């Protein structure tokens, strides 16, 4: 079925429509990666290096089982919406993601830097995990966890893959500290150039909020984005004993996000994690880090029997999801993909992206002759020599797209 005015048939088409709909600085934030963008490009290119071994005449009955459980929650397919802060692509923001993911029968993560209160998001999707950083004192963190517990969070996502690397070789979009007259005058040409986006926000009451309500101290107003970010930057990095302390403060499931090294995966298990996410923060952390899918097999082998292993980074198709499952993931988290969907068509666009991935997973299962995602094995995927990356392991040249990123900044679609 070809794309229509209100429906798109691929994540790539969602990205193209997002670029046409939102202001240029908002779009640049959606595609940004650290420094040269090598990791950002490799996250996507690495999936293209993996192949499949299809089967024919398998006699599969109608209907495939795509459901699974993550952190004790039953979801209809192995895809979860990852926590992403500062969602300025649509006025409904995280609530739109919650409604869409609930309609799709899956879970989502809500960032500490989200623009909507956790309670509002949980009301739209009870399967919402709250994401936290190591921010402030232990007392401050305990207060944040208390608020998350009261709001009904289904679990915690503890994000550790961030080094405050702000450099982008092709430029970072400026984020105003507040929407004063000067900021509005500076951003007005971009907004006027995208009248549908501007009209959506005007109808909702004004420009995107720059406050972070889920980091408000008891009895205090919500801090500004930059105020909270400054507190985070000023907090000394945690140790594994700090992470074990944080785990002890929460009586529900905990996922530790940002694991690339197998030893860190084992330390996460020792700290009490119920799940880990193999992630390089979408290419926004330490540039030159391997694509998440390259690091996944060694980590799954190291701890897959002890905790649930998820993957975050570069997923654009349902076949990518199946490749991740074959190499040891229980499920994947998506970020840019659903944000492009929301930028293109709001809540319906997020649901559109989720249904694209669902259909792609199902079609791939048919091609492999598998009746369930739980029947997928590593032999279903062709892994070329040197594909995996890790300490002491074999390396390989990056994929063609990643190699191109070494030579020049990424060319944005439509540029």
Architecture overview:
This protein is of the alpha/beta class. It has 15 helices and twelve strands. It has helices spanning 11-21, 24-31, 38-49, 93-103, 118-124, 138-151, 181-192, 195-204, 225-233, 240-248, 262-270, 292-303, 318-326, 336-368, 400-407; strands at 51-52, 68-70, 73-75, 79-81, 108-110, 128-132, 155-159, 254-259, 275-279, 308-312, 331-334, 381-382. The strands form three sheets. It has an eight-stranded parallel beta sheet with strand order 4-11-10-9-8-7-6-5. The longest helix is centred in the C-terminal third of the chain and has 33 residues, at 336-368. It is globular. It starts with 10 loop residues before the first helix and ends in an 8-residue tail after the last helix. The model is unreliable at 392-415 (pLDDT under 50).
List its traits.
alpha/beta; 8-stranded parallel β-sheet; 12 strands; 415 residues
N-end to C-end Cα span: 27 Å
Structural class, by secondary structure, is alpha/beta
SS field, number of helical segments: 15
| Average pLDDT score | 89
Helix content: 40-55%
Topology, number of strands: 12
In the sheet with the most strands, the strands line up as 4-11-10-9-8-7-6-5
Which stretches are poorly predicted, pLDDT < 50 over at least 5 residues?
Answer: 392-415
Task: State which percent range the strand residues make up.
Answer: 5-15%
Layout of secondary structure:
Blueprint: H1 11-21, H2 24-31, H3 38-49, E1 51-52, E2 68-70, E3 73-75, E4 79-81, H4 93-103, E5 108-110, H5 118-124, E6 128-132, H6 138-151, E7 155-159, H7 181-192, H8 195-204, H9 225-233, H10 240-248, E8 254-259, H11 262-270, E9 275-279, H12 292-303, E10 308-312, H13 318-326, E11 331-334, H14 336-368, E12 381-382, H15 400-407
Parallel strand pairs: 4-11, 5-6, 6-7, 7-8, 8-9, 9-10, 10-11
Antiparallel strand pairs: 1-12, 2-3
